[in-house]
């Protein structure tokens, strides 16, 4: 501890899904140091480098504190909140009046899910706008998980979480939790949890086209050809049935259509998928036998098998595998949470295909259209196209496929309003930017990630730092816009007004009181209330996950649908890959491009934090030595990578950690666009992976973007400064 005036405060980190407890030292109203909170019952002191960077974010001179308007000359002028909100609402309303409601689009990004205020107040604004053109980061991320949960269990948020604390066998496909800290699996310090799994005699198997940081911890790693996982999963289910290993146990009593699935996978013999997947048939059989024979086991497939041409089928088959082996809803398998605020009762069960995008007829899911369709919906020459956009906590120019095309489309908009605290690759196109307070300046409770945690816990983080004068929270900005846009008769508006009067804090109290551990509304009842939770400054432990089926199911008859029609129909598409009648998009000589995440990076938006940058260049293209030899490139050389939609120039890193024929570029870079006001990030710009990914590649079932397996050509354009005899680095630095 330094200085007499400093004090330590305990809060939760809201940057990623792990919800780590932080011990934050504050001195003179400023952050002096950030460490892990050892007394947090869930994270037990774990943090990653991004938490310490909260201090940089807090002090960042580039972070906007007050609204700005873009001038004709392209610079920015400060405007008052009243003027900025009035002008935003008026201009959006004018577009809707002249062109119809759908002429205004909305894009909501990932950090909105990490903000209590945005979670509580976003929905009302989007409902007020009543546009069909709603987009979000969901369709470049976890959409197939929601689709599978909705069709199988009846609720889009009833997502099974791998019980990593108790499992004896974990099969991981397309996830790198050691770096990402876990996703749809909130497990702070997941690396330690995976080590513990092995220490108790359990097994970890990783299937990934890259030998990842997680694969390094595993008992076994298998390279898989990008995009082929649905074949592998179908073959695993095939073996389980063919070798009579199916043991659904108590699940059988409330699971329908087991025989349909058995029939559907019958043609996916391991011998027939071996070549396409790159995994030998015997290895597939072994995997299936181990998984089915383990004391407890869980298959977990995340981003790599979600933003995938068969993402829907992959997430469905992951569920199928867990069910037929009896591992759903049992300790050590895939389990459901019992969160202190039951979001499932507050969010719709889900819906599918009520309308479609105009240009490509891609289906909506729960009121949203796929982000991959956003640019074409702006650029189509007809009268119905999108003319205006509201972005909220998102950076789609860097995070959705074919970012350059979207960028061009944004240029042509009549109005763009962004709720964001940076002038970045996306918001630089806005006419008005409405910046919210920072994570440390607002109250926080994780409504979303407690639904996805490997243990039931609850933790409240009241505002730590006083914002500068005249700053607004996300929820105040959203409520302010909503109030100005709402044209309904006053009676219909009462609900929104009351919510705004209560504010997030009291709404959270109501949520906790009415939740499964709640005190209800009687004054002296035991149970959770906000004030009781706030007194537990390290959070409260609500125990391990418990079996809860069939009661928790939201399907009409409380039964699991093992073979939803949509997936059954899509198996035809997979069969065509199997029998070779679907030609591969990759030409001979093409390499397949995949993405990766880095520990000191948070999607596209924390590269302005000095402590996360520096050191050697991290936006490098990983190339296997065999491919490097063929291309004549060595570590440090600069290459041009070209795809159907664009090209970028990046340095090469030769490594055996990628599969031959596959190259990898990290996601979230590309800060050298003109007009970006990120002083630190612009000095280490890197190149954007999404200048290469193709907006026309989607999983047709639900429109999720295919962000991996992009066919690319790589050409050497310059020698590295320190060109050596092909140096092979074993593992790219985190
Ligand atoms: N090729 C490829 N593309 C990908 C991925 C990939 O792996 N490969 N990953 C995908 C995934 S998983 C995701 S989630 C998306 C993310 O995509 P997005 O959500 O579109 O982008 P982010 O990089 O998270 O940008 C977040 C923005 O929110 C702002 N922000 C941060 N905190 C707050 C806040 O509290 N309030 C407000 N109002 N704004 C805030 C930041 O300044 C930044 O502009 O990218 C996807 N795109
Ligand atoms: N440090 C850090 N942590 C983060 C983030 C961050 O940007 N930085 N982002 C957060 C967000 S928004 C999310 S959604 C999560 C995502 O967390 P994860 O799901 O763990 O995502 P990634 O680390 O991108 O890992 C995806 C893996 O899929 C592999 N892969 C690519 N294509 C295929 C394929 O066809 N088949 C298979 N089997 N594998 C494939 C890639 O090589 C990669 O290892 O991370 C979160 N945590
Ligand atoms: S792992 Fe995630 S929650 Fe934990 S400190 Fe890092 S960014 Fe924050
Ligand atoms: Mo994500």
Structure at a glance:
This protein has 4 domains: 6-59, 2-Layer Sandwich (Phosphorylase Kinase, domain 1); 68-141 and 344-511, Rossmann fold (3-Layer(aba) Sandwich), CATH 3.40.50; 166-335 and 555-573, Dimethylsulfoxide Reductase, domain 2; 586-716, Beta Barrel (Barwin-like endoglucanases). Helices cover 29% and strands 18% of the residues.
Task: Produce the secondary structure layout.
Elements: E1 7-12, E2 21-27, E3 30-36, H1 49-52, H2 54-59, E4 68-70, E5 76-78, H3 81-99, E6 104-108, H4 116-129, E7 134-136, H5 143-153, E8 161-162, E9 169-173, H6 177-180, H7 190-199, E10 203-207, E11 220-222, H8 229-242, E12 255-256, H9 258-264, H10 270-277, H11 281-293, E13 298-301, H12 311-324, E14 334-335, E15 352-356, E16 363-365, H13 374-379, E17 388-392, H14 396-399, H15 403-411, E18 415-419, E19 432-434, E20 444-445, E21 455-458, E22 460-461, H16 474-485, H17 490-513, H18 530-535, E23 540-544, E24 560-561, H19 565-578, E25 591-596, E26 621-623, H20 625-631, E27 638-642, E28 647-654, E29 662-666, H21 679-683, E30 710-718
Parallel strand pairs: 6-7, 6-17, 9-10, 9-13, 10-11, 12-24, 17-18, 18-19, 25-29, 26-28
Antiparallel strand pairs: 1-2, 2-3, 4-5, 4-19, 8-14, 15-16, 20-22, 21-23, 25-30, 26-29, 27-28, 27-30
Helix pairs in contact: 3-16, 4-16, 4-17, 5-12, 8-10, 8-11, 8-12, 10-11, 16-17
Iron/sulfur cluster binds near residues 16, 18 and 188.
